[in-house]
C-alpha cells in the first residue's frame, strides 16, 4: 500500500517561503503523477500544483503561478513544493496525492482530485504576521 507523508509546513510571515515535501517509503514516486492540494478552513479543497508521471509537465493554479514550484527529487524519492512570496490567502492544510495512471487532469480550469488513489495526512501552512 502506498503511504504518502508531507512535511515542511509551519508558520511564516507574509512574503516568506516554505518548502513542502511529499515522501513515500516502499514506492518510487517517479512512477506517479503527484498533485498538491490545499484546504483552508471553511473552504473546499483545491488543487494547487501537479507534476505528471508521463512527461514531467506541470500545472499550477493561477493564484500561485510565479510563486510556487513543484519538482521531483528522485535521489530522495520526494516531490517538493517550493512556496515563495507567501500570502495570508495561502493559509491551509496542504496535501499531496499520487496517481499511477494519469497525468495532471484539469477540468474547467480546476485540477481534478478524483483521479488520485493515494493521499497523505497533510501539513499545515499558516501565513500570518
What does this 3D model show about the protein?
The protein is mainly β and 129 residues long. The model has no long low-confidence stretch (mean pLDDT 95). It has no helices and 13 strands.
Instruction: Give the N-to-C terminal Cα separation.
Output: 40 Å
Q: What is the N-to-C succession of helices and strands?
A: EEEEEEEEEEEEE
Any idea what the shape is? globular
What count of helical segments does DSSP give? 0
Helix content: under 10%
Largest sheet: 7 strands, mixed
- Portion of residues in beta strands equals over 45%
Low-confidence stretches: none
Mean pLDDT: 95
Radius of gyration: 13 Å
State the secondary-structure class.
Answer: mainly beta
Strand segment count: 13
Topology readout:
Blueprint: E1 4-7, E2 10-12, E3 18-24, E4 33-39, E5 46-51, E6 58-60, E7 68-73, E8 78-83, E9 92-99, E10 106-107, E11 110-111, E12 118-119, E13 123-127
Parallel strand pairs: 2-13
Antiparallel strand pairs: 1-3, 3-8, 4-5, 4-9, 5-6, 7-8, 9-12, 9-13, 10-11
